[in-house]
Amino acid sequence: MTITDEKRHEIITDNHDVGVRVFVSQESAGFKALHWHHHLEIVLVLEGQVTFRFENQEVLLKPNEFVAIGSEVIHSTTNEKNTSLVLQVPVAYLDAYWKNCELLTFNVPYNPSEKASAKYQEIVSCLRQMTQIYVEKQPGYLLRFTGQMMEALYTLITTYSISVAPENVVDQSRIKDLLRYIYEHYDETLTVKGLAERFHYHPDYLSRYFKEQAGLPLTRYLYQLRLQYVYQDLLHGTTAIETIFLQHGITNKKLGMQLFKEQYGTTPLKIRKHAQQSEVRLKSN
Fold first, then answer.
1. Secondary structure (H, E, C), 49-85
2. Rounded to an integer, what is the distance from CA 28 to the centroid of its chain?
3. Model-level pTM?
4. Which CATH superfamily is domain 3-166 in?
5. Which pLDDT belongs to residue 162?
6. Residue 20: other Cβ atoms inside 10 A
């Protein structure tokens, strides 16, 4: 697969024995740039907090809370240290049981009273049991896993989904083309004016359109994406922090440092020191 193909959407490798992807995610504080995939995604937080941004909304998840994101929906995440259950169901798999599932959007409740409802808690319970069954892989686990997953999906779809008529589906091809270009050229000099010229928009319109589709200003998104790469480089190697910033297109160091602290809750130097200390501990064990 080419680099360009990989930039189009999040690459997901399904668990071959069950036909979907299910795993326990353990992440340190971080940010995941706008992306999309050809799967229905359900994330249940076990520990910590994760913030999802999609379809002009921002959702903060705490332990025992979940989010459901439809296929092709553009989304990003910001998280503190967390442990979460993740279920990603391919459209082709789900379509055998629920036709036109790619047209489903989800309105999962986020207020405390509705989270306490029997339906919500049933989904939480099924997700937990399903994952435990898969981890243990006892004889007959495929039957038990599939049963719990199907129960979770049925309850989710019949309780919290909305089917969008094909004629009302928003064409996101333009914003996806723009995101692909940004992914591939993020470390270059990118401006709203320059991007508007390339994609034949008026700069003011592009700014409004991007914020409407992505949920944040284009210039802020550029910094978030660049800082994501900065963060990864800080975890490995000893290149000077200022050099790393420049390598990833951040020429305003003061602003970059300020936004880095907002995004990750600490400074680049502390991130590097913590990574180095963790590496030393691993080598000594």
1. CEEEEECCEEEEECCCEEEEECCCCCEEEEECCEEEE
2. 14
3. 0.81
4. Jelly Rolls (2.60.120.10)
5. 87
6. 22
